[in-house]
Amino acid sequence: MKRRLLLHACCAPCTTVTAPHFREQGAEPTLFFYNPNIHPWREWKHRLDTLEGWAPGEGLPLIVDESYPIEENLRMLLGSQPRCAACLSDRLMVTAMRAAKDGFESFSTTLMLSPYTDHDLLREAGRRASEFTGIPFEYSDLRPFYHISVQLSRQTGLYRQPYCGCVFSESERFNRRAALRRNQEGRSPGVAGATGSMNS
């Protein structure tokens, strides 16, 4: 009999690879959407709608925690360093507690697929949640398969978000793009002689 695994799902694209992986490992995953880190609410709703539209066709049950405590979440992130550690700990702890409550044998997360996730922080968050609840945390480094999720989401037309979710990551993405644009403009023909004055 396959073990019951509660799989925290950050979005549909990352689940396209992670859920089949666990099925191949002898688990029967149930998805759990709990992502209060996603800002703004419209983005949170878009990711949830995409997951709810995709999961039934894959035979994946989905549990949704619709709580959206934005003020509490922002206070937590502003008071934590590094912010990602607090965010991962919150999501995995809530997932582990839900797994214990509903009688699941283990828990995991689709965040294991992302090359942008700090996997040391992720493993530590999973370990602590496991110790607190007594529910095993299943970890696999799925980053080598990230490109497959990109291909699958494009082929199936799944919405693929441009940032991890929190307002800080959106700001960092914007700043990186702005810096890249400035660098490209500085190297473009016709401005080489003016570069010094532009940057001074």
Characterise this structure.
- This protein is an alpha/beta fold and 200 residues long.
- The chain has one domain (3-177): Rossmann fold.
- The protein has eight helices and four strands, in the order E-H-E-H-E-H-H-E-H-H-H-H.
- It is globular, with a radius of gyration of 19 Å.
- Residues 190-200 have low confidence and may be disordered.
Summed up, the helix count is 8
Strand proportion, as a percent range, falls in 5-15%
Low-confidence stretches: 190-200
Summing up helix and strand content along with how strands pair, one would put the structural category as alpha/beta
Q: In this structure, how is the largest beta sheet organized?
A: 4 strands, parallel
CATH architecture: 3-Layer(aba) Sandwich
Lateral strand order in the biggest sheet: 3-2-1-4
Mean pLDDT score, rounded?
86
- Overall structural domain count: 1
Shape: globular
Radius of gyration: 19 Å
Please give the oligomerization state of what you see. Answer: single chain
Question: Considering DSSP H and I runs of 4 or more, what fraction of the residues is helical?
Answer: 40-55%
CATH superfamily: HUPs
**What is the tally of beta strands?**
4
CATH fold-type name: Rossmann fold
CATH C-level category = Alpha Beta
Please report the distance between the alpha carbons of the first and last residues: 68 Å
